[in-house]
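FORM 12-B: Structure-to-Sequence Request
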């Protein structure tokens, strides 16, 4: 009889150990899956945002819109970011409330009246990582900042 009780006790211990190990393995698998999904996910539109500020009566703005801007909007990089245009009918109205969507008006405070247009702000998770104005700034600063931010968001090759 003692032998039967001992055998029953051993089976219970083995069953509990099996349950604990199974639960531990399942938990570890879930944690590993979550970590891998966070590391390997590509940048989402919400991660990187480009804000373009320009005016209809601004010749350099029109040149960018129809040239480098149009090419960028057709690129695969553009598909991976959020893009917001702040476009005023007139240069002297660029900072007016009606030209700025409410959700980005806080960034307007970073601009100086002496800043020109076209002007771009590159945001990563709502933090400004690059802010420049003028036609040369697109290729020299803004586009490289976007590419760098997107590359940092890509999974590491392994």
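FORM 12-B RESPONSE
SEQUENCE OUT:
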């Amino acid at each position: 009889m003692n032998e039967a009780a001992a055998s029953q006790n051993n089976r219970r211990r083995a069953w509990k150990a099996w349950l604990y190990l199974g639960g531990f393995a399942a938990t570890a698998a879930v944690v590993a899956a979550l970590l891998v999904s966070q590391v390997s996910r590509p940048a989402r539109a919400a991660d990187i945002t480009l804000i373009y500020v320009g005016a209809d009566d601004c010749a350099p703005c029109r040149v960018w819109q129809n040239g480098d801007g149009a090419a960028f909007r057709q690129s695969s990089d553009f598909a991976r970011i959020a893009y917001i245009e702040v476009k005023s009918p007139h240069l002297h109205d660029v900072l007016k409330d009606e030209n700025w969507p409410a959700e980005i008006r806080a960034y307007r405070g970073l601009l100086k009246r002496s800043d020109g247009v076209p002007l771009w702000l590159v945001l990563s998770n709502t933090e400004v990582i690059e802010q420049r104005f003028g036609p040369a700034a697109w290729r020299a600063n803004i586009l490289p900042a976007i590419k760098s931010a997107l590359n940092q968001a890509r999974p590491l090759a392994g």
